[in-house]
Amino acid sequence: MIDGVLFTVFALTAVGFALTMVFRRNPVHCALSLVAVLLSLSGMFILLNAQFIAVIQIVVYAGAIMVLFLFVVMLLNVKGETPLLTPGAAKGFGFLFALVAFVELLWIALSSVGEGAGRGTAPPVGPTFGSPAEIGRILYTTWVFPFEVTSILLLIAVIGAVVLAKRKFS
Amino acid sequence: MDTAFLIESAAKVACVLGFILVGVMLTVWAERKLIGHFQDRIGPERVGPFGILQSFADMLKLLLKEDVIPSQADKIVYFIAPALSVITGLVALSVIPFGDSVTLFGRTIPLRIADVSVALLFILGTTSLGVYGIVLGGWASNSKYPLLGGLRSSAQMISYELAQGISLVGVILMTGSLSLVEIVRQQEHLWFVVPQFFAFAIYVISGIAETNRAPFDLPEAETELVAGFHTEYSSMKWAFYFLAEYTNMFVVSAVAISVFLGGGHGPFLPPFVWFLIKLGAFLFFYIWLRATFPRLRYDQLMGFGWKVLLPASLLNLAITATVVALKG
Amino acid sequence: MQTHGVPMEYYQIVSALLFTIGLVGVLARRSALVIFMSIELMLNAVNLSFVAFSRMHAQMDGQIFVFFVMAVAAAEVAVGLAIIVAIFRNRETASVDDIHLLKG
User: Fold this and answer.
1) Which candidate from B76, B131, B139 shows the least CB-CB separation from A74?
2) Which of B117, B105, B8, C20 is nearest to A97 (CA)?
3) Cis peptide leading into residue A124 (ω within 30°)
4) What ipTM was estimated for this complex?
5) pLDDT tens digits, residue range B96-109?
6) Tens digit of each residue's pLDDT (9 = 90 or more) over A28-53
7) CA-nearest residue of chain A to B176?
8) Element (H, E) at B102
9) Nearest CB partner across the interface for B77, out of A28, A52, A63
10) Fold for the domain defined by C8-91
């Protein structure tokens, strides 16, 4: 019962702030709405037994990536644009396309959840499911190659960001 | 999830909140008294015995003060920024173990609000979120000193977060758990400050930088940036920032005590009393630093964080990992 | 030892909804920063879907995938924002409508 209440709260906050993010003029308000979405998603992750991922979401996504976003928005001092939407979207094409995409996504997602008696339930999991120990074990055995590649990718991203944002020497 | 559990949790939250509010007022008084004595003067002494009600009087004054809002300030963000700082500071206290347990009305009540299995990561997460209160406060004031102060302060905070986190990983390797209750429990015989002394030093220094306290308090120094990010804040909102800063000091001290200093273990006295004693010692250390050192220039501060503390904490991690792996 | 109270398809519905809202943001907004933020929203919707499926099948692989998605998203945000800063320095604008030099 408490799961249902928490899920409803998190889901409503996430969708509400996502809508706020897309339709606000001021980019700082958009960034803050996105942070709220990330925090609600983190709550949903905890409901899904993904404690480590939930806290990592707060530390990495909400605490570092969005701070970087906010810094860039504040330093560039971008104001909100005057016609909020692109001309095409103002005529409704974007929304139509998004509606079609939504129906399609729903179809695929719901059909993979299973039918009949299995629909909607989830099997019980042990207490270590989603714990850092479990993630560590799988990460360093089955998934060690993507892990190493990701570290190289992050190094490339750091170098790339520094090179791109440097002022040129005249 | 029965009603007794909910009532117990609500009571514990109220207790921690009360403890923090009283503790912050006492710390402010202690700071003014101690810095006064360090500087060969007396400090507040008129309001109550030894001036102990001084912070209470200040709080009353702040409550009744006029609330000035800059005209072009972004009202929504201006209002929520101090609240964000306080919320992230207080939420971190929900996973800190204050002592053992107490028996009341036939129930054994452990002296902590929650025992979360990822408690250390959770605290790191809340300190990361604490950056928002400062950078948003600086931006929402729509004025150059707060903006510069806010950006500098948040850049400083995110730089020292790394060293802070990595210095804690040494202890995590040794205990194999992220839960603060488990880490405290494993320090029964040997406090982790002994094998992890460098990590302790790195953690304390980064903690001081995280909370924007002297000697790392350039972003809010009066001689530099008027008052940094909280220049345009008055009355209760400024008081909230003040409260948030002292709450963060409490959190950093409490985590250092739980992870490195045994968190309640000690002879003769009950664990809660030991926790308070160690907390008092830590806060005294904070105040002593403020009275003693001149502040670091901003580039010195950032250079120290990135070029000295971060490599040092990584070295500590590498050595700890090697030793733990070799011991089996 | 924990069964789950909320049916799994509710999570998929929320994920699809968030993804679509992000899609609307990418298609309809003109500010490069907000478009970027909408892309992050889409990535997060996918993360939610992964974690929900991981829970449904009681396997940890979905969560590992989310871990990698977050790392890649961090890298992408760093480089993407550097590009936006570089463009802004040159053209003084952050609106994608004004960056049309390659238009025929």
Assistant:
1) B139
2) C20
3) no
4) 0.90
5) 998 887 877 777 88
6) 999 999 999 999 999 999 999 899 99
7) A133
8) strand B101-104
9) A28
10) Helix Hairpins (1.10.287)
